[in-house]
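Hallway conversation turned thread

IA: we were arguing at lunch whether anyone had actually written out Putative Fe-S oxidoreductase end to end. Turns out nobody had. So, for the record, here is the sequence (554 residues) and right after it the structure tokens. Reply here if something looks off.
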Amino acid sequence: MWVDFSLARPDLSTTASGGSAVIAVQQAVSEAAAMALGRLEAGADVLPTQLALETVNRCNARCRMCPGSSLTRPRGSMDRERHRLIVDRVAAWGPPITCVSHAGMGEPLLDRDLAEKISYEKQTFPKADVVVYTNGTLLDERRGEELIACGADMVSVSLNAFDPAVYTAITGLDRDRTYARVEEFFARARSAGGTTRTQVSLVPSPHSPLPDRKAFIAYWTDRGVSVAVPPLIHWGAGQAGNGPEGPVACLYLWKVLMVDWDGTVKPCCEDYDSSLVLGRLPQDDPRVVFNSPVMRCLRQRHLQGDFSRPAMCAACAETGSPARDYWSLESPVFTPDVSDTVETFKVELGQKLAASIAHNTFDYPPYVWPPSTPARSYIERFLSTYADQVRGQVVEFHPGYYRRFFPGADHYAVWNIEPAPDVTVVADIQNATSVADASFDVVVCTHVLSAVRDVWAAGRELWRVLAPGGLLLCTVPCLLQGYAPDPRDYWRFTRDSLDAIFARFPERHIHAYGNPATAAGSLHYLMTNHFPPNVMAHDDARCPSILGLAARKY
């Protein structure tokens, strides 16, 4: 639950423990700022984590604390094509976007294409929350259902007053009608399963007396609605301070890529008339814009404690507690340190893997079957390890490819779920009622379980058909792949899952084969011949391509 800090936050500076807490926060902020300054001076790029979109800068309200009525820049809406191109360019750059917000100097619900745009944002940034900031007056049944259906993660309604007269004096709108629509939408969002979160907000200002703020918080918290009371934005007029601890580098310079309806990029939402233009999207490269000389200079000034320019930074509330919270709890996201050889290698590897998407045919070499995959090489290495223990009655699951490894077998059978040439045992591994107990001395089961729906039943049957003292040789894949020769492909396995399936075997040995190179290569259909021999011989249990299980029944 969010509450008004001015009403509920204790004065930490007046207590001993509070003083220690303040010192700890200040120390954390100082350390984070020093690290960030070093990365800036080393030339590292900053990556935003939030994309703030103003898709419209028209509004149906006339809030007294908002400068929207005095805009001199053109008014309009971001068309669908521009929106799509901007989103695509940011996604192609690759910053870790965790939030896409819709606000700016307009009412987002005046954008007729808002739901379609949100759907595209969710598709492009599946890990990001999409947040809509609205005054709620247009939140009728149709628009509410569209917001829920398109996947909006949060709808925050700026109401700014409780008393009808105060509300109308601040916004110029009808309070009762707005409240009714908002409450109906909140109920609809809850009944839809709660996938769209909701909150209300009130900006404390000289126009909202303290008793009205308290009544606002009580009204909505009683209804189980989160309440946000952000600080008053002063729009560069010097009406808000940043607390006794002094200003801290603004989080927006590091965290938010801010885009107006016409593609203008600016450093801050308080630049409501967009006087400090950094670039324009989608024409310009967002990486270059967000790391332009102007942005680098602003960041460096803030980190060095210089908030004198531009003027809107001089007394900004955002450089107070919001910035301290950011620097003490989060950290800026930078591109890798190019002086770090490991990071340099990772960048090069990432570029190679990205290029492989265009060149990868997603198939095995033509006219070669079975293909010489790393997995097959590992299976052969595993079976060779136990070849001298394979004697007596042996059964291998179709197609019986590894018979040549076991010259000591007295009798060699081939098992399949349906009749086929050379198949001597026809049964479902999940329920092999036609196969007698203790029928075999050795069972060879290579890469079969991934195509079996009930692996637990298969594990029980493999135990049952083995004779006392019998040996099970089983391999399973650990990696996803785009191609599977079996008609079904259900599972990938870990050491723990394999151990659990065959826990009834008193003696179990699990071998891991492969390493990060062959694991990545397998996803791109690299064959054994594509790797140097020493790479194929290196096994890393932290990142195997396949697992081999040798289990003995007593």
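OS: looked through it. The first helix runs from residue 5 to 8.
IA: good, adding that to the notes. The CA atoms of residues 265 and 278 lie 5 Å apart.
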